[in-house]
Design goal:
single chain, globular
Length: 208
């Protein structure tokens, strides 16, 4: 999936297909190196070498590694949203009115899947694991995105109350999923099950 980050995270947005493919290689290399060496030892030069592009190509899009990691976080959010959307579309009517548990499972399952499989996700996820802004900002962004995405499926207005509900749910899921992955490399299934039960009990108060 070749999702291009939002132009706001880039010094210059790619215009041609070749430029977009080069940006994808740069971000893929960044993600792989984050897993291998961590953020502190990440360098734009190492990313350029891994991606097989001139160092100038990296600086065309990013001023430094922090901006590059922020763009990777934004790409993660775009990919996550696409995965949840595909999951809900496959679920069909079950994800509509009265089927909020199906939607919640899609949201949580896809987050866990990315934690387990997406390169660099354990450090960057949606932007709150390394210094690319405040910790609260990415969760607000995720909650707003999910509110806009799910309100239609759940037959709820995306009003302030629903946004607050999803923000609390996102903050709760974020904390518990990170706990599960601190307890076990692939995520402690018992803690993940507890997280699912807790979220269902909380959301039932609003969505049932």
């Amino acid at each position: 999936m070749k999702t291009v980050p939002h132009p706001a995270t880039l010094r210059r947005a790619p215009v041609q297909r070749r430029s977009a493919e080069r940006l994808t290689r740069i971000l893929d290399a960044c993600a792989d190196l984050l897993d291998e060496v961590g953020y502190d030892d990440l360098s734009t030069r190492a990313v350029a070498q891994r991606a097989g592009v001139p160092i100038g190509s990296v600086y065309r899009f990013f001023g430094n590694k922090r901006q590059m990691a922020d763009a990777l976080a934004q790409r993660n959010l775009e990919r996550y949203t696409a995965r949840v959307t595909e999951r809900l579309e496959a679920a069909g009517e079950a994800a509509g009115a009265g089927g909020w548990r199906v939607a919640m499972d899609a949201v949580l399952d896809e987050y866990i899947a990315m934690k387990r499989t997406a390169p660099g996700f354990s450090l960057v996820d949606f932007g709150n694991q390394i210094p690319v802004g405040t910790r609260g900002e990415p969760n607000h962004r995720v909650a707003d995105r999910l509110t806009d995405l799910l309100s239609g499926y759940l037959d709820h207005e995306p009003d302030e109350d629903l946004r607050r509900t999803f923000l609390v749910a996102v903050e709760t899921a974020d904390t518990l999923v990170h706990l599960a992955f601190r307890m076990a490399p692939e995520g402690d299934d018992r803690i993940l099950d507890e997280a699912r039960l807790l979220l269902r009990a909380y959301l039932a108060r609003v969505l049932d």
